Known about the structure:
The protein is of the alpha/beta class. Helix content is 41%, strand content 23%. Helix 1 crosses helix 6 (157-170).
Amino acid sequence: MDKINVLENIEIFYSTTGVEMTFPTVNGSNLLRQKLTLPRDFKGRFNLVFIPFQRWHQMEVDSWGALAEELEEEYEGLVYYELPTLQNGGSIYKLFLNEGMRAGIPNPKTRERTITLYLEKADFRAALGLPDEEHIYILVVDRQGKEYFRTRGPYNYEGQAALRLALTQLIPKMES
C-alpha cells in the first residue's frame, strides 16, 4: 500500500468513527511527586497522551518515544505525557509502585511527564470509549479535555502518518 492510500484509509477510519470524546477529570501524581488534575494541568496547548494499562505496555509506549520527542520539538505548544493507568489500591500499593517506577526512571523530564493514575480503570475506559486493555492508547487532547486524535498499539507507519496529519491540521510547525 502506498503512502497516499494509507493516509486516505486512516482519514476515513478516523472520520467515520463518529466518536467525539472528552478526557475525564482525573487526579494523579507525576514521578516528581507533584499532584495534578488532568486535563486542566496538562502544560501543552495540545497534549500527546500515551495510556498504558499493563506493565508490558511500556514496550509499546517506548516504541513511540523517539517520534514523541521529535513531534514535541516540531510543533509549538505540543507536550507529551505517559499516563500509566492502574486500578485504585491502598496507599502502600501506590507507594510501592510509584517508588519502583521512580527508581527505574532517573531522568527528571521523564519523571515530570509520567503521571500515574490510580482509579477505577473500567470507569476511565468507559468515559473515553476505550474498549479494552490489550494495547496502549495514544490521544491528542487539549487542556479542556477535547480529543482530536486517537490510535492504539505499538508504533507503526500508519499511526505515525495519521498522527502527523492530525497535528499538521491543529498546530503550525515551529520555524527552524
